[in-house]
Amino acid sequence: MKFQDNAGNSSRKARGRPRDWHDKTAQNIIKSLDRAMEVFEFLSEGQGKPLTTLANELHQSPSTMYRVLVTLESRGLVDFDVIDQVWHIGPKAFIIGSRFLLRTSLVERARPILRKLMEVSGETANLGIERNGHVLFVSQVETHASIRAFFPPGTLSQLHASGIGKALLSQMGPDRVARFLSEAPLERFTDFTLTSPDELTADLKRARDRGYAIDGEERNSGMRCIAAPVFDIHGEAIAGISVSGPTSRVGTGQISDLSNAVVAAAHELSAAIGGDSTQRRP
């Protein structure tokens, strides 16, 4: 936003940081604040410490340490246990951490990754999660091409006939897959839909081994989708990322390059939400 100051100076663009923000030298560090954050981080790693222990381990005088702790206590960041005479992390630390978790929501973190995937692949990029035996599409960045796939947020698709659905199924344990297969017959949508449990199971194994799944005209004729799972901190597949487009552009010859881009995007999103795709559950 631009604005005009009272003195009639030229418009200025509001800035979120100064020009020298890259400068992390001592002149730009508030020493007292830095010391307080050091105490706060140290206490978070080993709670329930008395004043003298904190002072000794952080090489500070007890009087300095006490002033830091009292200041943090006034903001609710630390608590003092009067019975045991020890200091703990306070409730405000949890509140602040919870706000960070809101910022790191899956959809918000996925948006720039989806946008980059669309630009790299030239095809529509999608994000979906599993809900009640279906894929629920929660975000999408459309390609600029005139012919394109369209799965607006809120769209539901069957797991067995979806790239994201098969990427998620491929990470489920045998018992859960067997339960899924027993709950309802596999509906046919096109001549390419996998409606045999044995065929689908074999396809899921291939998807798991290579790290991505393919929907080859299994839901819509003339459309192909390539998808990879996104993992959380527990190594569980909680979402899938995909690119989808017409077979005239997403042909068999493009699968190798597109799958590399999709898998890279899934890894990036996994890392962004604190997950690790290399530590996925067996």
TrEMBL record:
This is IclR family transcriptional regulator. Residues 30-91 form the HTH iclR-type domain. The keyword DNA-binding applies. InterPro entries: GAF-like_dom_sf, HTH_MetabolicPath_Reg, TransRegBhcR, Tscrpt_reg_IclR_C, Tscrpt_reg_IclR_N, WH-like_DNA-bd_sf, WH_DNA-bd_sf. Residues 1-11 have a biased composition (Polar residues). SUPFAM superfamilies: GAF domain-like, Winged helix' DNA-binding domain. Pfam families: HTH_IclR, IclR_C. Residues 1-21 are annotated as: Disordered. Residues 92-275 form the IclR-ED domain. PANTHER family: HELIX-TURN-HELIX TRANSCRIPTIONAL REGULATOR, ICLR FAMILY (PTHR30136), HTH-TYPE TRANSCRIPTIONAL REPRESSOR ALLR (PTHR30136:SF24). Keywords: DNA-binding, Transcription, Transcription regulation. The keyword Protein biosynthesis does not apply. PROSITE patterns: HTH_ICLR, ICLR_ED.
